[in-house]
Design a protein that fits this description.
Elements (H helix, E strand, L loop, with lengths): L4 E5 L9 H4 L7 E5 L18 E6 L14 H15 L3 E4 L1 H9 L3 E3 L1 H4 L4 E5 L20 E5 L2 E3 L5 E4 L8 E3 L4 E4 L7 H8 L2 H11 L3 H35 L2
Parallel strand pairs: 1-2, 1-3, 3-4, 4-11
Antiparallel strand pairs: 5-8, 6-7, 9-10, 10-11
Helix pairs in contact: 2-3, 5-7
C-alpha cells in the first residue's frame, strides 16, 4: 500500500502548521508532527525513510539554517530534504524550512547583518508573483501575507524565484517539480499569530522591528487580510494536498 503519512517537522512548539495542517482534513492522509530540535541525541533513526512518506513539510524557527553545531538536528533535516528531492516527494519548506531547502540546493542563506538589512516583520503583499505557479500563483491577489524573518535566501542565476518583496529578493522558490520554499508564513491565521504574540520573545522581536504598538498593529493587519487571504491560501495548499494524495494513491 502506498505511504499515506505527511511528515511535519517543527522547531519550536508555537510555530505550528496552521492552515497547512487544516488542508489535510478529510484527505485520508496521516499527519506525523515531530520536533527533532527538542529530541536529545536525535539521529536519522528518529526520522522515517522518505519511502514511507506521501509528503514532507518543514516549518519555521529562530535558528540559523547553518547553525549545525548549535542544532545538530538541522543536519538530519537537510539530509531528509535532500532524500525527498531525489525521490520526488512533494515537499514544502516554510521560513527556516525554506532556508534549509535552499541550502540543500547549494544556495546561500545570509543574516540581516550580512545583508545590511533589518529583519522583515509584518503583513505586506508579495511582489513579482509567478502567476503560473500552482502554489504561489494564487497569492498574487492576496492583500498581504505575514513576513517574520531576519535571514534571507540568496537565489542563484538559475533559481526559479516565485515572489519577492522590497527587502527580500527571494520570498518563494521552486525546488524541482514538487518542492517549494516559502520565506513568508502562509500557515498563519489571526488565531495562530495571537499564539505567537503570547510568547515574550516574539513580542520583543516585533516591538524592536515595528515599535511599541507592534502587537496591536499585527493583530489589526491579520484580521484585515484574513477574509481575502484565506481562500487564496486554501487554493495554494489544495495543490500540495493533491500531490500528497496522488503519491498516497488516494
Amino acid at each position: 500500500m502506498p505511504a499515506r503519512t505527511v511528515l511535519f517537522l517543527q522547531h519550536i512548539e508555537v510555530e505550528k502548521p496552521g492552515l497547512i495542517l487544516e488542508a489535510l482534513d478529510g484527505s485520508g492522509l496521516h499527519a506525523d508532527i515531530r520536533n527533532l530540535i527538542d529530541t536529545p541525541g536525535a539521529s536519522a533513526d528518529d526520522l522515517p525513510p522518505v519511502s514511507d512518506l506521501a509528503g514532507l513539510v518543514v516549518m519555521g524557527g529562530p535558528m540559523n539554517a547553518d547553525d549545525l553545531a548549535g542544532h545538530p538536528a538541522l543536519k538530519l533535516e537537510r539530509d531528509l530534504l535532500a532524500d525527498a528531492l531525489r525521490a520526488g516527494i512533494p515537499t514544502l519548506g516554510v521560513c527556516l524550512g525554506a532556508q534549509l531547502l535552499a541550502r540543500v540546493q547549494g544556495l546561500a542563506v545570509r543574516t540581516s547583518a550580512e545583508m545590511g538589512r533589518p529583519g522583515e516583520i509584518g503583513w505586506a503583499p508579495l511582489r513579482d508573483v509567478d502567476r503560473d505557479d500552482p502554489v504561489v500563483g494564487p497569492l498574487a491577489e492576496a492583500p498581504a501575507v505575514l513576513h517574520w524573518h531576519g535571514d534571507r535566501i540568496v537565489p542563484a542565476a538559475d533559481t526559479r524565484v516565485l515572489a519577492s518583496t522590497g527587502s527580500t529578493e527571494c520570498q518563494a522558490f521552486r525546488a524541482g517539480p514538487a518542492a517549494w520554499g516559502l520565506q513568508f508564513h502562509l500557515e498563519v491565521t489571526p488565531g495562530l499569530q495571537d499564539d505567537w504574540l503570547a510568547e515574550p520573545s516574539f513580542t520583543a522581536e516585533a516591538e524592536e522591528a515595528l515599535g511599541p504598538d507592534a502587537t496591536a498593529r499585527l493583530r489589526a493587519d491579520a484580521l484585515a487580510a484574513a477574509p481575502a487571504l484565506r481562500p487564496l491560501a486554501e487554493r495554494s495548499l489544495a495543490h500540495l494536498r493533491a500531490l500528497f494524495m496522488e503519491r498516497a494513491g488516494l
